[in-house]
Amino acid sequence: MNTNAMPSDTPDVLFYVLNSSDLASRQHFVCKLVQKIWQQNRHCDICCHHPAELTALDEAIWLFKPEAFIPHAIAQNPPAPIQLWFDQVDRPCHDILVNLHPDFQTYFQSYQRTIEVLDQSPELIQRGRDRWRRYQSLGFDPVLHKIP
Question: What does the pLDDT look like over 92-130, one tens digit per residue?
Fold first, then answer.
């Protein structure tokens, strides 16, 4: 069975909406997502909104499954297939963008896939709805996945 995902010519947009509103659950979900991306031999940029969010996610990825190392770094220091970025991505990998930032990332079309991860906090839900409409206005048909 081939686990490598084949990139398509048209970027796709996925929304994952968690059934919780705590930061730990969101971090855990992102760690599982990043592990799956890594297992598929894909590259990923993760855009965080706050330096503290970036630092916490970096630590969570290190501690996620000690027996299953996920090669990652902050802002290409050092180069790795999974990159965490603060506020914006300076050097995109062009494969997968995981947007944890509440703002719409205008450069999303340079990626094969954009993944938005929301939880039930009112601000994230509202800003996520705004981004959903923005994607639609640009001719994209986002796919929603509700995570129990």
Answer: 999 999 999 999 999 999 999 999 999 999 999 999 999
- CA distances for 86 relative to 16, 66, 69, 114, 116, angstroms: 21, 25, 22, 17, 16
Percentage of residues in the chain with pLDDT exceeding 90? Answer: 86
Note every long-range contact of 64-68, with CB atoms under 8 Å and residues 24 or more positions apart, other chains counting: 64/28, 64/31, 64/32, 64/35, 65/35, 68/35
Cα–Cα separations (whole angstroms), residue 75 to 48, 79, 89, 107, 115:
11, 8, 8, 16, 19
Domains along the chain?
Answer: 12-147 (3.40.50.10110)
User: CB-side exposure of 96: number of CA atoms within 13 Å?
Assistant: 25
End-to-end CA distance of the chain: 28
For the four alpha carbons of 130, 136, 142 and 144, in that order, the dihedral sign comes to positive
| DSSP reduced 3-state for 135 | helix
